[in-house]
Structure formats: C-alpha cells, structure tokens
C-alpha cells in the first residue's frame, strides 16, 4: 500500500481496493485538513508516472475523487444494478480539482428500512456503504438494530418478553411502527433477527465513522408499548386514533 498517510487513509484505500483490486496500489492517498478560511470539502486528482495522486479533506471525499477519476476516463461505473470495470493498462494523463458548498450530503430515510434492507446481511450493507463513499455521501441514515435497544429499555420498565412480542411488528413493517403508526403487524419479531441486526448496526457505524461519515441514528420517538402505558397510569400518555 503506497499511501502517504497509511493509517489515515486506510478506510478509503479499502474501498478503492475492493473496487479495482491490486491496481489500488497505484493510488497515493492523503488527507488535507480544512482551514478556517476554507471549510468546504475538496479534492485534487493528478496522474504521473502511472501513479494516481489523490488529496482530499476526508476519506469519503477521497473515495468520491477516485470514483470521479475512474468514471471520467471510462474505466469504472458503479451502480445498484452492478459495476462495470475496464481498467486501462496505464493511467491516462489527468488533472482535476473539485469542491462542494454542501457540508452534509444525506442519504436514506426511515421508510427505506422496510423495503429490502430487513433482509440485508453485513456483506450487503458493507457494499452499500462503499457505494455511499464513492458517491460522496457523508450523512447516511443508520436505523438498523433499534429493536434490541427498545427491548432492553422496556424490560427495565417492567415490560415482559411476551408483551414485547405483542408490541413489535414484523421486519418489513418496522419503519411504520418506529414512526408510531402501527404495532404487532405481521409479528412476532424473531429474537435471532433482533440480535443479528444489532450486530450489523455496530459494524455499520464503525465503517461509516472510519470513512469520516456522520451516521444519523434514531432517538426516542415517543411511542411506547401498550403494556408500558397500562403499568404507568400516572404517566401522560396519549393514544392516537386508528391509522
């Protein structure tokens, strides 16, 4: 790995290597700190002597710069449907600078986590995070693993496992439960699934942060199980009308 800042750029190098294999060793990566006078994300890409030198303000910016270069020269196209990779034997002469006025580039929303993501494993999520980095995303929504947190919390307040089973919806309907619209629908939610998503979320957050992203994690939405309301009659709890 011939990078100037080996440890600093470890995560961006891994994304590039996953994309183009050993040719990533021909990339020299370095992170440049932002200044008070210029607080925007920016990058610079240059080729010389079959080396690709990339400077950027974060690991995600470096990934975006690398993809911009590879796409500009017609060597790589990354999409949800699949990747097209056709690398030249030697790198073309190239020089480019880029910047963005947008401090945060957001991706994903609450409803996405009820479509295909309930069945994603860590390998699939890791691939999606690579896609995010290559497209410059630095504010991704990270909503996996919520139910184990709520499960542990409600147990502390006296809600039993059986009552929680009656509360949680099935995997595909959890976004609407998390937003306070439904409960129990197409449950029971398997404990194995809850544990698996907890483990995946930890890996998701670790990788996102390593790439200098700012993952958005859930807070308490104010929606409580029916059993909690029945056990805490002095609490101020309102029941919503049917959705």
List keywords for this structure.
single chain; about 240 residues; alpha/beta; Chitobiase, domain 2; TIM Barrel; 2 domains; four-stranded mixed sheet; two-stranded antiparallel ribbon; 8 strands; about 35% helix; elongated; Hex-like_dom2
Topology record:
Layout: H1 10-20, E1 27-31, E2 41-48, E3 51-56, H2 59-72, E4 76-79, E5 82-85, E6 95-100, E7 106-107, H3 122-134, E8 139-140, H4 146-156, H5 161-167, H6 174-178, H7 191-210, H8 226-231
Parallel strand pairs: 1-3, 7-8
Antiparallel strand pairs: 2-3, 2-6, 4-5
Structural commentary:
Keywords: Hydrolase. InterPro entries: Hex-like_dom2, NAGLU, NAGLU_N, NAGLU_tim-barrel. This is Alpha-N-acetylglucosaminidase TIM-barrel domain-containing protein. Residues 106-243 form the Alpha-N-acetylglucosaminidase tim-barrel domain. Pfam families: NAGLU (PF05089), NAGLU_N (PF12971). This protein is 36% helix and 15% strand. The protein has helices at residues 10-20, 59-72, 122-134, 146-156, 161-167, 174-178, 191-210, 226-231, and strands spanning 27-31, 41-48, 51-56, 76-79, 82-85, 95-100, 106-107, 139-140. The chain has a four-stranded mixed β-sheet, covered by helices on one side. A two-stranded antiparallel sheet has the order 4-5. Strands 7-8 form a two-stranded parallel sheet. Helix 1 runs parallel beside helix 2 (59-72) and helix 3 packs parallel to helix 7. The protein is built from eight helices and eight strands. It has two domains: 10-103, Chitobiase, domain 2, CATH 3.30.379.10; 110-231, Alpha-Beta Barrel (TIM Barrel), CATH 3.20.20.80. The termini are far apart. It is an alpha/beta fold.
